[in-house]
Amino acid sequence: MTTDTPVPWKRAFRSLYYAQAPEPSDPVLERGKLALLVIDVQNVYLQRPDPATLDAPARALYDAWTPFHRRMHGVVIPAIGALQARFRADRHEVLFARIACHTRDGRERSLSQKLPGWNNLLLPKDAWESQIVPAIAPQGDEMVVTKTTDSALTGTSLRLTLANLGIAQLVCCGIFTDQCVSSTVRSLADESFQVIVVEDACAAGSDALHRQELEIINHIYCQVMRTDELFGYLP
Predict the structure, then answer these.
(1) Per-domain residue ranges for the chain?
(2) Which positions ≥6 away from 77 have C-beta within 8 Å?
(3) I need a surface site. Which of 52, 83, 85, 216 has the fewest CB within 10 A?
(4) CA angle 107, 109, 110 (to 5 degrees)
(5) Which CATH fold topology does 31-231 show?
(6) Would you place residue 131 in the very low, low, confident or very high pLDDT band (cuts 50, 70, 90)?
(7) Dihedral sign (CA 235, 223, 189, 43)
(8) What is the enclosing helix (H) or strand (E) of 69?
(9) Which helix H or strand E contains 93, and what residues bound it?
(10) For residue range 39-98, what is the model confidence (pLDDT) as tens digits?
C-alpha cells in the first residue's frame, strides 16, 4: 500500500550514511541570528517558449522540463512566498542570491559558467533575465548578492554581510537543489553556519535529482524539512 503522507523530517531523506543514525534534535532557532536565503529564483529559469513554434527535438525538451515548471509555480514559489511573509512579519532578515555578471560579455564569470552546456549562462546584472521573479522579489532594503559562482558564499560579500548582521542560522530555498542550493549549503556548513533547507521551497530539473540531492546533503550539511515543519520552530 502506498501513501501520500509526508515522512516527518527527522526520518525523511536519509542516505546510507545516516540510515541507522538517531533522530536529530529539534533545532533551536534564535531571533537576531536567523535569516532566510532565497537562491537563484530568476526570470531566466521560469521563461518558456511557445510550444507551437518548436520542432520535434525542442518540443521533447520542452516537455521534459514541464514537471519542473509545474512544481515551481504550484509548489515552490508559493512556499517561498509563505516563508518570506513569515520571516518579514517576524522581523527576520530576508536575503537573496542570484547569478549575474557585471560585464556585458560575462568575462568575469567562473569557469563553470563558461563551459559548453546548460550552465553556460550569460546574465548581465541589469537584464530582465537576471532579476528575481516578481512574485517573490525583494522588498524595501532587502539585500541581493550577485554571484558568478554556484555557491553564494564564494567570491561575494555574503560571508561578511552575515557576520555583520550577526547571522549564524540560515534557512535556504530556491533553485536548483542539486546545483547552486547544494553548493551554497555546503559552503555555509563548512563555515559552521547552522543550515535548514526547505524541501517544498526548492526544485531541481527533475524530482529524482531533487530528492537525490536532498538525501546527499541531509544531516551532514543541513537539516531538510518542509515549510509547515519549519514554521513550528520559528521564534
Answers:
(1) 31-231
(2) 41, 133, 135, 136
(3) 52
(4) 130
(5) Rossmann fold (3.40.50)
(6) very high
(7) negative
(8) helix 56-71
(9) strand 93-99
(10) 999 999 999 999 999 999 999 999 999 999 999 999 999 999 999 999 999 999 999 999
